[in-house]
C-alpha cells in the first residue's frame, strides 16, 4: 500500500506540473546534509566499488557469491548499455534550459 501511495502521488505531480518545474522545486528545497550524503553515496553504484566488493568476497572465501555478483553485474551492465543504445535519448534536466 505505501508503494502505491508513493507512485500515485508522484504520478499526480507529473500530471499537473512539468518535469522541469518539479526538478527546480526539489533543487530549491535541498539541504547541506543531503548534498554531502549524495555526493558520496552516488559512487556506490560505480564499477570500481562493485569490482572491489567482488574481489574482497573472492579473497575471503565467498567465491560462489562473488561469481554470482560478478555475473549479475555483468548482465545488468550489458542490458543497460543495450537499452541506452536503442532507446531515444531523453534530455537531462539541464538540457531543457539551454
Which SSEs are present, and which pair or pack?
Layout lengths: L1 H15 L2 H10 L3 H10 L5 H13 L3 H24 L12
Question: Could you explain the architecture of this structure?
Answer:
It is built from five helices and no strands. It starts with a helix and ends in a 12-residue tail after the last helix. Helix content is 73%, strand content 0%. The chain is an all-alpha fold and 98 residues long. Helix 4 packs antiparallel against helix 5.
Supply database-style keywords.
single chain; 98 residues; mainly alpha; 5 helices; extended
Roughly how much helix do the residues carry, as a percent range? over 70%
Compressed to H and E, one letter per element, the order equals HHHHH
Rg calculated over all Cα atoms? 19 Å
DSSP strand tally: 0
Low-confidence runs of at least 5 consecutive residues: none
Class by helix and strand content? Answer: mainly alpha
**Given the structure, what is the number of helices?**
5
Largest sheet: none
Report strand %.
under 5%
Using the alpha-carbon principal axes, give the shape. extended
Report the span from N to C terminus: 40 Å
User: What's the mean pLDDT score?
Assistant: 84
Amino acid at each position: 500500500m505505501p508503494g502505491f501511495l508513493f507512485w500515485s502521488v508522484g504520478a499526480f505531480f507529473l500530471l499537473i506540473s512539468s518535469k522541469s518545474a518539479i526538478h527546480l522545486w526539489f533543487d530549491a528545497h535541498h539541504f547541506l546534509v543531503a548534498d554531502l550524503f549524495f555526493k558520496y553515496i552516488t559512487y556506490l553504484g560505480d564499477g570500481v566499488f562493485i569490482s572491489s566488493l567482488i574481489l574482497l568476497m573472492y579473497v575471503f572465501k565467498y567465491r560462489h557469491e562473488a561469481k554470482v555478483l560478478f555475473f549479475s553485474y555483468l548482465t545488468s551492465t550489458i542490458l543497460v548499455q543495450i537499452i541506452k543504445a536503442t532507446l531515444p535519448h531523453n534530455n537531462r534536466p539541464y538540457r531543457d534550459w539551454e
